[in-house]
Amino acid sequence: MADIVSKERRSSNMSAIRSKGTLPELYFRGVFSKLGYRYRLNDKRVAGTPDIFVLKYHVAVFIHGCFWHRHNGCKYAYSPKSNIDFWQQKFAHNIERDKVVSEQLENAGVRQLVIWECTYKHMLKDVDYASKIISAVNAFVSTGTEQYTEVD
User: Fold this and answer.
1) Fewer CB within a 10 Å sphere, N or C end of the chain?
2) Is residue 48 helix, strand or coil?
3) Model-level pTM?
4) Counting beta carbons within 10 angstroms of the beta carbon of residue 119, is it exposed (0 to 12), middle (13 to 18) or buried (19 or more)?
5) CB atoms within 10 A of CB 148
6) Sign of the C-alpha dihedral computed for residues 68, 74, 76 and 81 taken in this order
7) Could you tell me if residue 68 is inside a domain?
8) Is residue 7 part of a domain?
């Protein structure tokens, strides 16, 4: 199936996608600030350069886009209909990189929290759901003993 836009337009669209400072990331930075956590942004000293790193609790927070990181069962994790081989390789590489980073963090004793983009979108629409997620995030960071958890 042919792409419906020109290569130049597609390139422009793709280059506009940010990896840092996204709306979900800004939202959760506000959440962490309101909860009283001090954190570092995109700390390159931590494997995987997490979006948020809470040093006191050794928690790396990744705010994953459902499309790019292939959130299982999520409507946002659709597969493009053109250039299928490219996308399959891209997604496989992203998934493998996430596994490697997770193992590195686990070996370093860093706990991991993954928050999915769809969670953020749902939180914007439902105040009760947002409150539940914020409580779960707070419990994981401050009192949790789990090594890894996903919020979705």
Assistant:
1) N
2) coil
3) 0.86
4) buried
5) 14
6) positive
7) yes
8) no
Residue 10 near residue 3 (C-beta atoms within 8 A)? yes
Q: Which two tokens stand for residue 117?
A: 């983009």
Q: Which residues of 87-112 are buried (b: 16+ CB within 10 A; e: fewer)?
A: eeeebeebeeebeebbeebeeeebbb
- pLDDT tens digits, 4-16: 767 777 666 655 5
Q: How many structural domains is the chain composed of?
A: 1
Per-residue pLDDT tens digits for 55-71: 999 999 999 999 999 99
- Mean of all residue pLDDT scores within the chain: 91
Which domain covers residue 132, as residue numbers?
19-151
Where do we find the tokens 């370093």? 108
Hey, is 137 helix, strand or coil? helix
Query: CB within 8 A of 110, min separation 6: which ones?
Result: 46, 47, 58, 59, 60
Q: Which residues contact 137 (CB under 8 A, 6 or more apart)?
A: 28, 31, 35, 113, 115, 151
pLDDT digit string (tens) for 97-127?
999 999 999 999 999 999 999 999 999 999 9
